[in-house]
Design brief:
disordered C terminus; 6 strands; Arc Repressor Mutant, subunit A; 3 domains; alpha+beta
């Protein structure tokens, strides 16, 4: 199908702006609008189209070009950025591992998977990756304790990093009593659906106890 005159004008305009950016020039919206006799909104849409094209066609494990606004130059220019980005297959593998771990509540798991896909998968492939895990995500069964643990995990991680003591209350199974402890966390581990914390107990710093993140 042949392009209409208006579509052809837009195609030529986008290619001209793209070429200008690739040559290292700064694109000023007002100047380009006057050059092509269109309004600045049309030029902005052209720039957005170019930016989207560059983001969707970049190499996920090397570097990519993007269009940024340079306030000093008062225009748009191309910026070359190095980054490491997970491939579609790597993201899929991580999603599968997360789902099988059953480490989080269903809402936490859904939120993590959604952000992981949005951040690490090109827009053109996000639906495909989401579809591949949709069934497992739908049938995901959270553990019976239904404890939200992510923020606690971060707090414990900070305590380990800063070598700080923390205070906890936990329910002792052997006599059903609630016990208060002051601990110095040294490590976080994950095994068979649960997070565990290894820590020194204040009254016996020569002994390392293990505390379950289930509490």
């Amino acid at each position: 199908m042949n392009e209409s005159p208006m579509e052809k004008d837009k195609t030529n305009r986008v290619l001209a702006i793209y070429t200008k950016l690739m040559n290292g020039a700064v694109v000023n919206k007002a100047e380009e609008a006057a050059r092509f006799q269109v309004n600045e909104r049309s030029i902005q849409r052209d720039i957005d189209d170019i930016r989207n094209f560059l983001e969707e066609t970049d190499d996920p494990v090397s570097a990519y070009n993007t269009v940024i606004y340079d306030r000093t130059a008062k225009g748009y220019r191309l910026e070359y950025i190095y980054r490491m980005k997970l491939s579609n297959s790597e993201v899929l593998a991580i999603c599968k591992i997360l789902l099988d771990s059953r480490a989080f509540t269903k809402k936490e798991m859904t939120d993590i998977l959604k952000r992981l896909i949005e951040c690490c998968v090109p827009k053109s492939n996000q639906k495909l990756v989401s579809d591949l895990i949709r069934n497992e995500e739908f049938h995901y069964i959270e553990l019976r304790h239904k404890t939200k643990f992510i923020e606690t995990l971060w707090a414990v991680g900070n305590a380990i990093h800063e070598s700080r003591w923390i205070e906890i209350d936990y329910h002792r199974q052997k006599d059903q009593k609630t016990v208060h402890r002051r601990l110095k966390p040294v490590a976080i581990m994950f095994s068979e659906f649960y997070f565990y914390m290894a820590a020194f107990i204040e009254d016996d710093c020569n002994c390392v106890q293990s505390y379950s993140g289930r509490a």
